[in-house]
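Ticket #4471: structure export looks truncated?
Reporter: QA, pipeline team
Priority: medium

Steps to reproduce: submit the single chain below to the structure queue and open the exported record.
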Amino acid sequence: MNIKIGASLLSWITPNWTAEAGKYAIEQTAKAGFDLIEILLPNSMEIDAKAVKKQLKENHLDVVCSLNLPKEAHIAFYPKEAEKLIKNAIDKTSDLETNFLGGVLHGGIGVFSGNPLSETEKNTIVEVWSSVADYAKEKGVNIAVEPINRYESYVCNTAENVLELIEKTGKDNLFLHLDTFHMNIEENNFRDPILLANQKLKHIHVTESHRGMLGEGTVNWNQFFDALKEINFEGNLVLENFSSSIPGMQQMVSLWQKSPYNAEQLALGSLNFIKQNLI
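Actual output as written to the record:
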């Protein structure tokens, strides 16, 4: 396997990007011993790429980007707005000199139609994905789409949902981005989706069923890591668990219970857990 282990920006700060907070997250990620940081791009794209690249270089850290579509860029309802925002994110990804953009790129988080995804909506998504995939290819960027649970979206809940739409586009720079928190809710197990995706799987948010310390929840980690080894996974494993010790985090991600670990303890303990399971 060829794997880089990273930490999400959210391991250290809330989703509200500021230059100061971003610098802190980069420094903490490097200090903890991760290979890379995943920067969740703000919808405004107001990130000073030059300054961030300098910080990454000083901390010997790689970077990937992600974007979660907001309600006002729900593809099925607002395809033009969604396409514009994703293309802006591709530009920022390229500015940061990385070749990867992941995230919830199938629909706005928290948006529901009241019905299952329709064929018309699928066609709209395929059209937008095809356009942004072509744009990304010109910039040397690969895109990976993250399915999320039924309580946050009706569009793509499973690996199969995303892979079906990717296949309809026929684009070779569209991939799957999994998240073990959402898998724990929507998938039958942790093996089948990984084997189904195979080389289309490039990025995984590694997190526990309660978003806390890896190994202390209900995720079947043996099954998960065995499946990665079975497909000889090549990609990123990015820690995305949350600590209530971060001011504002409970309100931003509905983390209503107090965390037994602070952010640093959570990151270090989880990183060690990942490394031990990759042996």
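Status: closed, not a bug. The export was complete when the record was re-opened. Leaving a note from the reviewer for reference: Residues 119-139 form the longest helix (21 residues).
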